[in-house]
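Per your request, structure below.
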């Protein structure tokens, strides 16, 4: 595991224009002066000693509390985090709702056992047996990948390659088709890389969560994030520590997950809508909505939405979890396994590998073993819901059904859109629902 702080520097154009460049903490300190002064930026910068930036930061922070969220939020920090499990990458995005970022994709990278974190790193006691189970999962992944690659060649209509596409692009589409359907057998304990950029205050909250976590991988990541955060925001490091109330809260969440039904889910969608007061015309709200980034009217922006499924694969949860708006809820008790058998009949023994992994993970959860999550695969299903506003929901639905969308989460979002159309039929045809055509 490696965490690297990557700092920003001014562009040549910015330097040529004579624009100021500040350290992250000095940026926050300068912004903080706006609450106590109306002199403007030039007057504030004039008080900064370029030969002693620390003194300038401290001088400004004597007036205000740097621990105050609105000030610490003005300290941008970008961290690149390499060699963590797919579960931990999910967790980082889950607890970083304001972050922008990326994670290594299962669509473009073929993975194997060499990328698996060790049982010792993950705090798994019966390492040899666990390693054997993960080997069986990778064997299923390789077999499934070969199977779907052959399907793409034998049944090109399934890949839906557009007419006129050159062979290089067509080969990429066939490869993506196979990777998208084979990925369900990948263990969540396989290494991935993630990059997130957010405020130093948000990183402190991440540290508090990870340092309070029962899993050693999370604690180790929290320690390394704290070290790198100190390069950009040293005055905030005192807040980046283990918190007993977080320890208790995380333990309670695991107990709560045990009480959720372990019944196999059918990816059944649900949708709740809370309408605001006043006259509403959702069709008018979408009248000028000609792409997913375009204008949406205030009626939809004021409407609260809660949507989700009784259980979907962790592979799709990883993607849907990265939407920044609102609140996501995902109790991590396995509710079955998805193996893409609805796409095409294939060997049942692959699905059996996934079912056994999910069943063992559930058993270990009920035994109160926090490392149970590392028994799961990307096809292991969990309940998932997202609470947001209608405009953000429609953006997500348009994105996740649009060009290049993964076939499975496209289906999940189409299922929710069908429920939306039942409630608001006047919006059908105005929502830019796609067909997940390949790109």
């Amino acid at each position: 595991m490696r965490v690297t702080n990557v700092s920003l520097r001014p562009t040549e154009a910015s330097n040529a224009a004579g624009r100021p460049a500040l350290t992250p903490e000095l940026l926050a300190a300068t912004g903080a002066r706006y609450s106590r002064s109306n002199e403007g930026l030039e007057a504030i910068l004039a008080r900064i000693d370029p030969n002693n930036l620390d003194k300038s930061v401290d001088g400004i922070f004597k007036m205000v509390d740097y621990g105050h969220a609105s000030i610490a939020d003005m300290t941008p920090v970008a961290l690149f985090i390499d060699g963590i499990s797919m579960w931990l990458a999910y967790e980082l995005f889950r607890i970083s709702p304001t972050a922008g970022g990326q994670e290594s994709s299962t669509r473009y990278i073929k993975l194997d056992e060499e990328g698996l974190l060790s049982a010792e790193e993950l705090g798994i006691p019966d390492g040899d047996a666990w390693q054997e189970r993960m080997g069986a999962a990778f064997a299923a992944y390789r077999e499934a990948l070969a199977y779907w690659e052959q399907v793409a060649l034998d049944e090109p209509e399934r890949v839906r390659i557009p007419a006129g596409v050159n062979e290089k692009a067509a080969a990429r589409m066939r490869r993506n088709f196979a990777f998208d359907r084979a990925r369900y057998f990948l263990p969540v304990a396989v290494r991935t890389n993630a990059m997130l950029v957010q405020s130093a205050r948000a990183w402190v909250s991440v540290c508090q969560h990870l340092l309070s976590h029962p899993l050693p991988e999370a604690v180790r990541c929290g320690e390394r994030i704290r070290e790198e955060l100190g390069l950009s925001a040293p005055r905030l490091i005192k807040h980046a520590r283990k918190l007993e109330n977080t320890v208790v809260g995380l333990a309670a969440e695991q107990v709560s997950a045990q009480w959720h039904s372990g019944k196999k889910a059918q990816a059944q969608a649900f949708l709740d809508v809370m309408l605001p007061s006043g006259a509403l015309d959702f069709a008018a709200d979408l009248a000028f909505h000609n792409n997913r980034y375009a204008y949406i009217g205030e009626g939809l922006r004021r409407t609260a939405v809660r949507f989700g499924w009784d259980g979907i694969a962790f592979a799709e949860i990883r993607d849907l979890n990265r939407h920044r708006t609102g609140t996501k809820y995902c109790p991590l008790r396995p509710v079955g396994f998805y193996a893409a058998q609805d796409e095409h009949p294939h060997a049942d023994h692959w699905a059996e590998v996934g079912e056994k992994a999910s069943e063992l993970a559930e058993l270990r959860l009920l035994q109160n073993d926090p490392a149970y999550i590392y028994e799961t695969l990307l096809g292991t299903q969990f309940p998932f819901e997202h609470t947001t506003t209608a405009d953000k929901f429609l953006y997500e639905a348009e994105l996740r059904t649009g060009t290049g969308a993964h076939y499975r989460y496209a289906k999940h979002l189409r299922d929710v859109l069908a429920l939306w159309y039942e409630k608001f039929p006047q919006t059908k045809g105005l929502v830019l629902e796609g067909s997940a055509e390949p790109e």
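The chain has 19 helices and eight strands.

Regards,
D.
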